[in-house]
Write a structure and sequence with these properties.
Length: 148
């Protein structure tokens, strides 16, 4: 079938459809050419023999940094996500939140919903009695002397 929108060229519909969808291929070709040019420029400017994978990773991180910095400043994002943004973008990660005083056990499956007021001293997460061990102060401090 001939596509009437092609006028005097009388192109088949298949060709017209292919030309409409070919745009994505053109975009990929442009991106590839930009990458190749940037890698060649990088090699010429720095005389650094960096492998392709490392270059792509560094390039992608450099392109993401401005966006991550903006996202890390959004106050409504979860703290863990903000910390990951800051870590990847190279910003100083400051944990200014006080450790929790109670909450659900951080080790138990969520389905158990065990509330607790005990906090792990090392990881500062709430832990229930099932995952709690009692240790005396001497053992923690490494005092092995016996009082006879």
């Amino acid at each position: 079938m001939i596509d009437e929108s092609t006028g005097d060229m009388c192109k088949p519909e298949v060709i017209t459809f292919y030309n409409l969808t070919k745009e994505v291929v053109d975009v990929v070709d442009e991106m590839k050419a930009s990458y190749v040019n940037s890698r060649i420029s990088y090699k010429c400017d720095t005389n650094d023999q960096i492998d392709r994978r490392t270059y792509i990773k560094a390039l992608s991180l450099d392109l993401m940094k401005p966006h991550l910095v903006i996202r890390a400043s959004i106050p409504t994002l979860p703290g863990q996500l903000v910390c990951q943004f800051k870590h990847v973008s190279g910003l100083q990660v400051v944990d200014n939140q006080p450790p929790p005083t109670e909450g659900f056990c951080g080790i138990c499956p969520r389905g158990k919903n065990r509330r607790t007021k005990k906090i792990c001293a090392r990881y500062t997460i709430p832990i229930c009695n099932e995952y709690t061990m009692f240790t005396c102060v001497r053992c923690v401090e490494g005092d092995n002397s016996d009082n006879d």
